[in-house]
Write a sequence for this structure.
């Protein structure tokens, strides 16, 4: 590796570490803020539609967690493709063996639980049918978003790896064509 490549490699490994840590903190702070808002809304007896404010907090927290996860995975596939990173190759090959402990980098279960619990203050307030449809619809959309994101995240490594490999092949072909043209121009 050349010094600039080594510097890039180290910066990208640092990026993975920092974003992984940030993802956990965003989750913890987001859930804490959601819980505080949900309790406050319940305590003051706010209107059912006001439960959309805490829902927005958990939805925003989820989007931040998801964005960081996608970014970390993409950087990992870049390292795997362009730096032949052994850790990234091993992590991808290891996958999720049967019976092994697993972690959820998107915190799906807590986010879905929060979405369902977020409906309780609205239900306690005795919503009208339109309020219930509006608030329930917002929660349903968030739940759908989490499930779709989880499905996309399961495929992401393979999709990103294939894309980076294709980009690398295209770059090699382009450089080869340019080299051929240079050689032909020099011979003319």
């Amino acid at each position: 590796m050349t010094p600039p490549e080594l510097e890039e490699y180290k910066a990208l490994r640092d990026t993975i570490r920092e974003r992984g840590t940030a993802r956990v903190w965003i989750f913890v702070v987001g859930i804490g803020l959601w819980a505080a808002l949900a309790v406050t809304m319940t305590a003051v007896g706010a209107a059912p539609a006001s439960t959309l404010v805490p829902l927005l907090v958990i939805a925003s927290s989820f989007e931040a967690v998801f964005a960081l996860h996608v970014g970390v995975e993409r950087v990992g596939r870049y390292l795997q493709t362009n730096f032949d990173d052994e850790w990234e190759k091993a992590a991808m090959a290891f996958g999720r063996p049967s019976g092994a402990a697993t972690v959820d980098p998107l915190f799906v279960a807590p986010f879905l639980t929060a979405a369902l619990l977020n409906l309780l203050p609205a239900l306690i307030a005795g919503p009208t049918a339109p309020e219930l449809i509006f608030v329930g619809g917002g929660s349903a959309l968030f739940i759908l978003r989490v499930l779709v994101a989880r499905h996309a995240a399961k495929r992401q490594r393979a999709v990103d790896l294939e894309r980076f490999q294709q980009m690398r092949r295209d770059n090699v072909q382009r450089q080869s064509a340019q080299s051929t043209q240079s050689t032909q121009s020099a011979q003319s």
Q: What stands out?
A: The chain has one domain: 3-93+104-170. The radius of gyration is 23 Å.
